[in-house]
Design brief:
single chain, alpha+beta, 434 Repressor (Amino-terminal Domain), 5-stranded antiparallel β-sheet, 11 helices, 5 strands, 14% strand, elongated, Helix-turn-helix transcriptional regulator, Lambda_DNA-bd_dom_sf, Cro/C1-type_HTH
């Protein structure tokens, strides 16, 4: 939640400035002989492209709420990580900027988790654009393993509206619920990444090729399910129920779906 506490904002700027090392004119980092660690205010203001007088007021908590442009310049000047930049924006009274796109690489620890659950439950990982990134052995057995060569073949919304996989996996009633959810989730993805060329192309493709998508899209629903119970057809074990929980990695915008099997019907 954005903060209005200018004192804490100023204290954070001072801590970040003190943690920085002056650059060596020959390149690299210079060991400072200064009595006070870190950069001078003038040096930070030069890096951020703002006046030293204004920067001084920010550190002292006497300046008006900084603009998003000023916050972005300060984050760049300090070389902040995504998490540190988000913290700076909140302290400055602004919501953190959204990432330009989801990360394309899954955390190694998450991949180890998937493999560790191979014999326990199906697990999948998809990103904020609804592209499937990974799934474990149990998920491959439940959901199938084949993908085409097209640009959208690993996208959940595309698969939902252009293949017959849902009817086999969920049955008629379950398929309809999933289609409704897929359109609602896709609308969220577009709202988070409004300038994403991939999502815009996918929207055009589905609009042109799927009457079912057009019908659901016209409903204008927005939503995201984080818990559900689904009746699904396993290719070798028949119909079974799964408790589904969805966990989110906000830094990478990755979504982990855990399918906990209930007792067989």
């Amino acid at each position: 939640m954005p903060s209005s506490d200018r004192t804490e904002f100023g204290a954070y700027l001072r801590r970040r400035r003190a943690a920085m090392s002056p650059a060596d004119p020959r390149g690299g980092v210079r060991t400072s002989r200064r009595r006070v660690p870190g950069l001078r205010r003038q040096e930070v203001s030069d890096l951020a492209g703002i006046s030293v007088e204004y920067y001084t007021r920010l550190e002292q908590g006497r300046a008006p709420r900084p603009s998003r442009e000023i916050l972005a310049s300060l984050a760049q000047a300090f070389g902040l990580s995504d998490a540190e930049r988000a913290h700076l924006f909140r302290l400055g009274g602004e919501p953190p900027p959204e990432p330009a796109s989801p990360a394309s690489v899954i955390r190694p620890g998450l991949l180890r988790l998937l493999r560790g659950l191979d014999e326990t439950m199906p697990v999948t990982v998809h990103d904020g654009r609804l592209d499937l990134l990974a799934r474990n052995k149990a998920a491959q057995e439940l959901l199938g393993t084949s993908f085409g060569d097209g640009p959208f073949e690993r996208n959940i919304a595309y698969q939902a509206f252009t293949t017959d996989t849902l009817a086999r996996l969920l049955g008629g009633e379950g398929s309809e619920r999933f289609l409704r959810a897929a359109a609602a989730e896709f609308r969220i993805a577009l709202s988070r990444y409004p300038d994403d060329a991939y999502l815009r192309s996918l929207l055009a493709e589905l609009t042109a090729t799927s009457q079912s998508f057009r019908d659901h899209w016209e409903e204008g629903e927005v939503g995201a399910s984080r818990s559900a119970v689904k009746r699904m057809h396993h290719p070798t074990q028949g119909w079974a129920r799964f408790d589904i929980e969805v966990l989110h990695d906000p830094e990478r915008d990755h979504w982990i779906m855990l399918y906990t099997p209930q007792e067989d019907e």
